[in-house]
Design a protein that fits this description.
Elements (H helix, E strand, L loop, with lengths): L2 H24 L5 E9 L1 H8 L3 H21 L2 E6 L8 E4 L5 E4 L8 E10 L2 H12 L14 E5 L6 H4 L1
Antiparallel strand pairs: 1-5, 1-6, 2-5, 3-4
Length: 164
């Protein structure tokens, strides 16, 4: 290892320690952010669009109340529902920087329907919140069990093992 690499690593470690000390001074606890993603198939989206009005209202009311519960608990960061899959596009820059779009993708099996971002102290707390979100009301037979929610930690920094 070169001396400059050691200095950079020590500076990074010093900065990390400084951030942790500042958090403690402010009384902030170490929390982890997770994204909870609700996905569905194209058929799920089509079925959702045809739910009876009362079922849609109950579902939306549940989501609003659930988001308020998360705010009251202090774990809520953000939540959004997303547009239907037929509006999705993949965007890339072309060779000369121009915008190139691709889509719609009928072969795609699942689409992201919406998400929550929560700030919690443990992974288990994120799982518990996802299970609660999973219980949103739906017409009989709309889902096999409850709505599946994918839980993934948001990386605020690159994992150290990838940098070594």
């Amino acid at each position: 290892m070169y001396r400059s690499d050691s200095c950079i690593r020590l500076a990074d470690e010093h900065a990390q320690i400084h951030r942790e000390l500042e958090k403690r001074k402010k009384g902030e606890e170490d929390k982890m952010k997770y994204i909870l993603m609700m996905s569905g198939t194209k058929a799920d989206f089509n079925t959702f669009a045809s739910w009876p009005k009362e079922a849609l209202k109950a579902h939306v009311q549940f989501m609003r109340a659930f988001n308020q519960e998360l705010r009251n608990e202090g774990t809520f960061v953000d939540a959004e529902g997303l547009a239907f899959p037929h509006e999705a596009k993949i965007v890339r820059a072309g060779a000369n920087g121009e915008v190139v779009t691709d889509g719609i993708f009928p072969e795609t099996k699942e689409f992201l329907a919406g998400y929550w971002i929560v700030d919690v102290e443990t992974t288990e707390q994120a799982y518990s919140i996802a299970a609660r979100a999973s219980m949103a009301p739906a017409p009989e037979g709309a889902f096999e069990g409850h709505i599946p929610i994918e839980v993934r930690q948001i990386m605020s920094e690159m994992p150290e093992e990838l940098l070594q």
